[in-house]
Specification:
Layout: E1 13-15, H1 32-43, E2 48-50, H2 79-84, H3 107-110, H4 112-124, H5 134-147, H6 151-154, H7 158-166
Parallel strand pairs: 1-2
Helix pairs in contact: 4-7, 5-7
Length: 178
Amino acid sequence: MQKPTPFSRRELGILLHPTSLYNHEDIGTLGKYAYEFVDWLESTRVSLWQILPLTRNGRYNSPYFSYSTFAGNPWLVDLETLHGHGLLPRPILHSTLWDHRIPFGELGKTKLPQLLTAADNLLRRKNHPWRPRLRRVRRFAGLAERHGSLFRPQGRLWRTALVGMGAGCQELQGRLPA
């Protein structure tokens, strides 16, 4: 029997942020194509996936200067998922998979209105399964608005956090008291 070496068990990893994944939107999301990518990683025995923070970009447009550790990046919310949960009418998407540079400067014109529509619909639906999370998000948004932060320049952008919290990880729900 051979003596084990540091290379006896090799691992393969990748560094890729979900915003770089192909999609029918202007930006990669945590939707269907992200799940397909993870399935592909598993099928190829990739055992490590390192990503940058999934928070909203803050100062200097960097995920490392986010205003909150817990608030997800609304650009990662998948429009087709929102449509599937009844929060968005037919989303405006590219007809083919988008494989170009991400137009970060244009997302406020292309994706933000759709996220705000979904957030408004979530606010109107009192029995929606994502509804219990609203109290915590509203409290965060109120504090951020009062003390001046990422929410003030964009006006009602806090509503996108409602959608982001609803589409977030189920295991994180309820970790902190509301």
